[in-house]
């Protein structure tokens, strides 16, 4: 061991410490030079005892001096590296708190949902409850109980999607659903399955489990196997209505419907009742609303007539009361089925019903 060796250690330490690229590298170097076991300077100091006394004095002094110097080198380089690392973190994670936030895309309710909610609110304010029923129905509820027996020509009024007998899923879910529907008709009743063509079966289900007085609406999706055009789709929505008590008349029906339209459209509207045939009401009529899309001037929605057929209605037929187990003469009432899509078109002046299911965001984003 001589002074040359110490100078060599000093030179390498200076070079390597100043060249350390990060704190890990610096730590390795610290072990290399100052490490307790095998650090270059530690070994020098440890071996001092083997040197002659004179040499030990000089080398010892120089080695201690170098140790202090090297520790200062590490300290200084450590500070530099910490600052560089901190600066790079700051650069990476820098956040401009004054920058305006990114706009969160929000969905909106479908126009039909908006109008459905509004219709429900208006009917609720007139004391009507809101009930629902299954979209997959049995033939008995959709037709038979509504006084539309098999082979009756009136069935042709409702072009029906019939369902094939269901495949049972591994978990038996479809079977359970089918059994539920079939059991809720009786075993003697027709249990073929279909997609309901109107929400009138909900009034049957409700009357089976409730006695008059009744005041309900039944909104929901319905299906028909028919050609589509600006005013017709194969999947649309009905709001069925039913009001039954001892002395309910068509005058009550008119008052309720005019109140609905007045509140929904925010102004008095014109309606007209045309005699019509529905097997489950007598008398039956269709209600036309003067076309709001074109202000009754004529457009594709009203087929250029100025009127749009909006609903079917009438006084509940005694046969329907019989089907649900009521004594026909004990009560009377009206029922109606509003085309929800049609009144939505009127409210928002939508010229084509097919837009509702087009999935076109340019259309949907307007609501
Ligand atoms: C019925 O379905 C009856 N259940 C309504 C009813 C209930 C009458 C209670 C009497 C008593 P209709 O098939 O007319 O009736 O349908 C009712 C309304 O649904 C129509 O007035 C019309 O506004 C709308 N509608 C009918 N077919 C379509 C279709 N393909 N696309 C869109 N809306 C339709």
From TrEMBL:
EC number: 6.1.1.20
Compartment annotation: Cytoplasm
Cofactor(s), names only, from the UniProt record: Mg(2+)
Catalytic activity as recorded in UniProt: tRNA(Phe) + L-phenylalanine + ATP = L-phenylalanyl-tRNA(Phe) + AMP + diphosphate + H(+)
CDD domains: PheRS_alpha_core
Cofactor mode of binding and number, as noted: Binds 2 magnesium ions per tetramer.
UniProt GO molecular function: ATP binding; magnesium ion binding; phenylalanine-tRNA ligase activity; tRNA binding
Keyword Iron-sulfur: no
Annotated Gene Ontology cellular component terms: cytoplasm
Region forming the signal peptide: none
Keyword Metal-binding: yes
Protein's name according to its UniProt entry: Phenylalanine--tRNA ligase alpha subunit
Organism annotation: Candidatus Sungbacteria bacterium RIFCSPLOWO2_12_FULL_41_11
């Amino acid at each position: 061991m001589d002074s040359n060796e110490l100078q060599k250690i000093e030179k390498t330490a200076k070079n390597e410490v100043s060249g350390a690229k990060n704190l890990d590298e610096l730590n390795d170097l610290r072990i290399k030079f100052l490490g307790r076991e095998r650090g270059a300077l530690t070994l020098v100091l440890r071996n001092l005892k083997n040197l002659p006394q004179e040499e030990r004095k000089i080398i010892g002094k120089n080695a201690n001096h170098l140790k202090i110097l090297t520790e200062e080198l590490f300290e200084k380089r450590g500070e530099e590296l910490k600052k560089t690392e901190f600066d790079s973190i700051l650069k990476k994670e820098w956040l401009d708190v004054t920058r305006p936030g990114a706009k969160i895309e929000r969905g909106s309710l479908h126009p039909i949902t908006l109008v459905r909610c509004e219709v429900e609110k208006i009917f609720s304010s007139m004391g009507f409850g809101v009930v629902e029923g299954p979209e997959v129905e049995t033939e008995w509820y959709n037709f038979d109980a509504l006084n539309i027996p098999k082979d009756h020509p009136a069935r042709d009024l409702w072009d029906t999607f019939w369902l094939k007998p269901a495949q049972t899923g591994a978990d038996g879910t479809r079977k359970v659903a089918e059994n539920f529907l079939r059991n809720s008709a009786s075993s003697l009743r027709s249990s073929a399955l279909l997609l309901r063509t109107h929400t009138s079966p909900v009034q049957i289900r409700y009357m089976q489990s409730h006695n008059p007085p009744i005041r309900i609406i039944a909104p929901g999706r319905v299906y028909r196997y028919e050609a589509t055009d600006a005013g017709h789709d194969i999947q649309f929505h009905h709001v069925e209505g039913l009001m039954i008590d001892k002395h309910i008349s068509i005058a009550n029906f008119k008052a309720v419907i005019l109140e609905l339209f007045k509140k929904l459209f925010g102004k008095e509207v014109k309606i007209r009742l045309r005699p019509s045939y529905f097997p489950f009401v007598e008398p039956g009529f269709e209600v036309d609303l003067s076309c709001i899309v074109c202000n009754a001037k004529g457009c594709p929605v009203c087929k250029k007539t100025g009127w749009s057929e909006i609903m079917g209605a009438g006084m509940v037929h005694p046969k329907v009361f019989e089907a649900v187990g009521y004594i026909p003469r004990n009560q009377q009432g009206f029922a109606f089925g509003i085309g929800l899509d049609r009144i939505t078109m009127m409210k928002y002046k939508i010229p084509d019903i097919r837009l509702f299911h087009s999935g076109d965001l340019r259309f949907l984003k307007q609501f």
